[in-house]
Amino acid sequence: MQQRVDLLQSATSATRALSPADLETCFDDPLIIVSVPRAGSTLLFEQLQHLAGFWSIGGESHAIFNAFPSLDAANAGMDSGCLDESHADPRTCDQMRRCFAFLLCDYRGQRYLRLNPRSGNVVLLEKTPRNALNIPFLLKVFPRARFVFLHREPPQNIASIIDAWHYGLQTGRFVTYRDLPGWDRHAWCFLLPPGWRRLKGKTLAEIAAFQWTAGNRIILDELERLPAERWMTTGYEQLISKPAATLREVASFAGLEVPEFVQEMQSLPFSRTALTPPHPDKWRRHAEAIDNVRDEWQPVAARIATL
Known about the structure:
13 helices
């Protein structure tokens, strides 16, 4: 709780010279990566944040969201972790923008608040897995936000979620909720979509397929309400096989130039969140379990394939 208070107080104090209108202008055209967990969003974020023109808080925004007790879950009944317009009252929006401005830095580590004079507009790059459930909320905080929807082939993605659940229950990493009411495990990892209670007693493959399906469906439902020019889509497989072309496409969508070193990029380093070295076949140890829940994820996979 003290960390929450400290961040809000520090951000409010450091940005006191910025009016609400200044903050809205500052975050005029953010770029927000949305995906389900283990889809490669950290890898994409890590590459983009090193490009001139992008500004970020240096990593995922868990600390900012956690600074607002009212955003811990959608409601007191813990029905889901989805945030909508009702959570984005004017005070929350202003305080959240102040937290982002307080932590904002560019690819060189230059803090935005230390610039003199400050630019009126920066391209905020934001990525946090929970944002898959938060698009209506984010559009209130950042009304002109644009989105990159990153997706990954379901068997590989679901297998990675299964592995991360195993690891998370053993170590605490990836845990987002502890002691959920009525839940039969000591913790819950990653997204908490509506309908999570029906997973009680289910296998990790069933839980992972549910999270993949619900998260991607919610992303698609929300993005398809926006004008086509407000969002783009790319795949993890494309990012791995054609990194230069993919980064160039995303940067162009954000209105930024791509430096020469990206144009010559042939491969990408491991993401810092990778549990084991990437291998195209490592998902196959879960192949049977994933195939058993194909009816859960196949309709959304077919929907993504049409994009």
